[in-house]
């Protein structure tokens, strides 16, 4: 999934989000500069050794294994006109690798965009 959006009124910035659902590679860029990068781990999105440290509404218990349904990325954008950005990715419970995920973009705790796709 790949999408872009603008943040700010007087001080405009472009945020680019890229998530590869097949290999779990993540890149978030602000004005072309990478600010967050990551990938899935061996046990993502499960926790086989204990409880996931996320609210109950963001996880699913499947026969004693917890599966994280919502991932979040938070960051600030801007120097003078600071904005707090949160991107959420929600996966399906069953066959998530083969189904579209939902993405929500919040700026200063206000939902500004929703996307659905691979």
Topology:
Layout lengths: L1 E6 L5 E7 L6 E5 L2 E6 L7 E2 L11 E4 L2 E4 L1 E8 L5 E8 L10 E7 L2 E8 L1
Antiparallel strand pairs: 1-2, 2-3, 3-4, 5-7, 6-7, 8-9, 9-10, 10-11
Tell me about this structure.
The chain is mainly β and 118 residues long. The chain has a single domain, classed as Beta Barrel (Lipocalin). It is 0% helix and 55% strand. The protein contains no helices and eleven strands. A four-stranded antiparallel sheet has the order 1-2-3-4, with no helix packed on it. A four-stranded antiparallel sheet has the order 8-9-10-11, with no helix packed on it. Strands 5-7-6 form a three-stranded antiparallel sheet, with no helix packed on it. The mean pLDDT is 88.
């Amino acid at each position: 999934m790949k999408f872009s959006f603008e943040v700010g009124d007087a001080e405009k910035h472009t945020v680019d989000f890229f998530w590869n659902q097949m290999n779990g590679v993540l890149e978030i860029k602000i004005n072309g500069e990478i600010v967050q990068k990551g990938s899935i781990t061996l046990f993502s999105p499960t926790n086989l050794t204990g409880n996931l440290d996320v609210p109950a509404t963001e996880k699913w218990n499947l026969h004693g294994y917890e599966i994280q349904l919502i991932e979040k990325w938070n960051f600030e954008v801007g120097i003078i006109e600071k904005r707090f950005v949160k991107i959420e990715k929600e996966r399906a419970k069953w066959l998530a690798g083969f189904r579209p995920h939902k993405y929500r973009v919040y700026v200063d705790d206000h939902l500004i965009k929703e996307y659905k796709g691979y």
